[in-house]
Amino acid sequence: QVQLVESGGGLVQAGGSLRLSCAASGRTFGTYAMGWFRQAPGKERAFVATVNWAGTLYYVDDVKGRFTISRDNAKNTVYLQMNSLKPEDTAVYYCAAKSSGSVGSVHYSTWDYWGQGTQVTVSS
Questions:
Q1: Which of 64, 63, 95, 91 is nearest to 79 (CA)?
Q2: What is the DSSP letter of 44?
Q3: What is the pLDDT of residue 27?
Q4: Nearest in space to 10 (alpha carbons), one of 116, 90, 119, 84
Q5: Residue 71 pLDDT
Q6: Do residues 60 and 49 touch, judged by C-beta distance below 8 A?
Q7: Closest CA to 49 of 91, 85, 78
Q8: pLDDT score at 103
Q9: CA-CA distance, 54 to 113, in Å (whole number)?
């Protein structure tokens, strides 16, 4: 069982930056694939970025060049650095873990563990 706790959300102006953190419990963090997803009102939860157990990164097209996912296995933490934020980035952001270690499908239903979410609001 893995517990995930996100932090770092907030209100920021367009063009600004935020860094989200996700702290995970458990001693096998390094073997999990980790991901960040977001859900805007009235929309389905959607993948933003993932990192597998080997450190391979994958991003949705509309955040490439602006967001960076990283993991620190010594701290059991995954981060999402978000730069050049846009109003359309406004959503609840969720951290997720997949026990297989490989990302496979990025559909939210295939991920095993979830955090409680943190709100990110970007004003224009």
A1: 95
A2: -
A3: 80
A4: 119
A5: 97
A6: yes
A7: 78
A8: 86
A9: 19
Residue corresponding to tokens 């390094």 = 30
DSSP string, 55-67: --EEE-GGGTTTE
List strand residue ranges (DSSP E) for the chain, in order.
4-7, 10-13, 18-24, 33-39, 46-51, 57-59, 67-72, 77-82, 91-98, 113-114, 118-123
Residue 47 dihedral angles phi and psi, to the nearest 5°:
-75, 145
Q: pLDDT tens-digit profile of 35-66?
A: 999 999 999 999 999 999 999 999 999 999 99
Instruction: Tell me: pLDDT of 104 over 90.
Output: no
DSSP designation for 92: E
